[in-house]
Protein: YCII-related domain-containing protein
Organism: Polyporus arcularius HHB13444
Amino acid sequence: MSVTLTPLTVAAGGFLPQTVQSSDAGAVAKVEGSFLLIQADTAEQAWETLKKDVFWTSGEVLDHERATLTPVFVGVPQVE
């Protein structure tokens, strides 16, 4: 089966220390890193999508020098 994907930001969030819960007051201030899950056919499409993201273009949130791209497979339960 061949599927063509439209570049799309599917999810985004931050990495917290293990001692912090997302519901804790001030949790956002303790974020140690962030991620975007981008659906795309190619690495180039994923980078293009990332570079259009407001957190990238603002230059205030995402560290352009440390950004990496890691392909992943996301399993989604089939609803019948």
